[in-house]
């Protein structure tokens, strides 16, 4: 009966310990180059193939990766997940996806559930409600590899992938200005979310570049990211009731834009076509909307690919990783040729 060669067999043949052979096969920094070469050459000679189940048990790895996003239905995140999966499955990893629905409680529960399932690492995009990151810090300190993408946290030292939010917000606001809008409000996400101050800064930079004043009253924050419709409705009502009412709104997320339009139809049905709305979008049907709209597109698929490659590098590294990078990807602006009617566009995250 055929009996596959084991690490014990290699160790016996070479006069080494099984732990040394195991580390050499994993290219561990603890093993000398000469010993690695000896083991690898012998393994190749006898056509040694590791047992994937035994390897998983031996290395205490599940070959699964947890992904936390606010919602899969969001075009931006669905595209990012496609990018993640395109790399993960090729490299032998399974992907487990959890949705926070922009809820801190849901995010914390999902993170712990994934950790309990012994995932090898986490890819995380923060929820709008999260201000306490102790659930992530604790796992990071315990050695669980994690990479943040899009919505990141600065306090945890690891790899991160974002887009140039300032540039995208600048271009969307600039386009509205060039089309004659001079009083542009900003419907913003939760102020503590990483994308919020960056997009606010781009908006302010555009106003300054064209000599327009920044009015703090024009910035309305939605601390739950649109999860609570009444919060969005209240913010839109405040914008419409301002003595110096804005003629345009720069909206900060998909869910906020939906709530914004619903509120505008409720409070301002007769003049809705006189108010321009602009922002970012990754929707596949964006060009089918009538009238056509201007929007900033984010490279979500590429972001997912880069994030998973970074995470696998952390998981499979034979040495402790002490240097981390933040990759900043560029956005692309698609102008609308006609802003004479309502313009609807959203940020993908």
UniProtKB/TrEMBL annotation:
Task: Respond yes or no to whether keyword Transcription regulation is given for this record.
Answer: yes
Q: Which segments constitute the HTH lacI-type domain?
A: 5-59
Q: Which domain of life is it from?
A: Bacteria
**InterPro entries found in the cross-reference section:** HTH_LacI, Lambda_DNA-bd_dom_sf, Peripla_BP/Lac1_sug-bd_dom, Peripla_BP_I
* SUPFAM superfamilies, sorted: lambda repressor-like DNA-binding domains, Periplasmic binding protein-like I
Q: Which keywords fit this entry according to its UniProt record?
A: DNA-binding, Transcription, Transcription regulation
Q: Name one GO molecular function term.
A: DNA-binding transcription factor activity
PANTHER family, A to Z: HTH-TYPE TRANSCRIPTIONAL REGULATOR GALS, LACI-RELATED TRANSCRIPTIONAL REPRESSOR
Q: What is this protein called?
A: LacI family DNA-binding transcriptional regulator
């Amino acid at each position: 009966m055929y009996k596959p060669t084991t690490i014990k067999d290699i160790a016996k043949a070479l006069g080494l310990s099984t732990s040394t052979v195991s580390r050499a096969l994993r290219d561990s920094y603890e093993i000398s180059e000469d010993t690695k070469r000896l083991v690898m050459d012998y393994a190749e000679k006898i056509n040694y193939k590791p047992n994937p189940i035994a390897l998983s048990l031996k290395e205490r790895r599940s070959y699964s990766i947890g992904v936390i996003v606010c919602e899969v239905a969001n075009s931006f995140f669905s595209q990012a997940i496609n990018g993640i999966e395109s790399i993960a499955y090729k490299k032998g990893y399974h992907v487990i996806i959890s949705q926070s629905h922009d809820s801190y409680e849901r995010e914390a529960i999902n993170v712990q559930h994934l950790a309990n399932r012994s995932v090898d690492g986490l890819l995380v995009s923060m929820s709008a409600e999260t201000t306490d990151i102790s659930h992530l810090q604790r796992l990071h300190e315990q050695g669980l590899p994690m990479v943040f993408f899009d919505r990141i946290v600065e306090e945890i030292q690891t790899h991160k992938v974002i887009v140039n939010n300032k540039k995208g917000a600048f271009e969307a606001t600039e386009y509205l200005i060039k089309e004659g809008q001079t009083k542009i409000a900003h419907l913003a996400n939760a102020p503590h979310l990483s994308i919020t101050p960056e997009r606010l800064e781009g908006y302010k930079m555009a106003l300054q570049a064209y000599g327009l004043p920044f009015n703090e009253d024009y910035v309305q924050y939605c601390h739950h990211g649109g999860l609570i419709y009444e919060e969005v409705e209240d913010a839109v009502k405040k914008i419409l009731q301002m003595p110096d009412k804005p003629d345009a709104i720069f909206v900060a997320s998909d869910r906020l834009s939906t709530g914004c339009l619903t509120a505008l139809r409720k409070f301002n049905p007769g003049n809705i076509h006189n108010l321009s709305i602009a922002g970012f979008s990754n929707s596949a049907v964006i060009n089918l909307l009538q009238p056509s709209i201007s929007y900033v597109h984010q490279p979500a698929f590429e972001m997912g690919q880069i994030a998973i490659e970074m995470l696998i590098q952390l998981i499979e590294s034979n040495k402790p990783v002490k240097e981390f990078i933040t990759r900043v990807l560029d956005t692309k602006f698609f102008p609308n040729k006609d802003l004479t009617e309502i313009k609807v566009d959203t940020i993908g995250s």
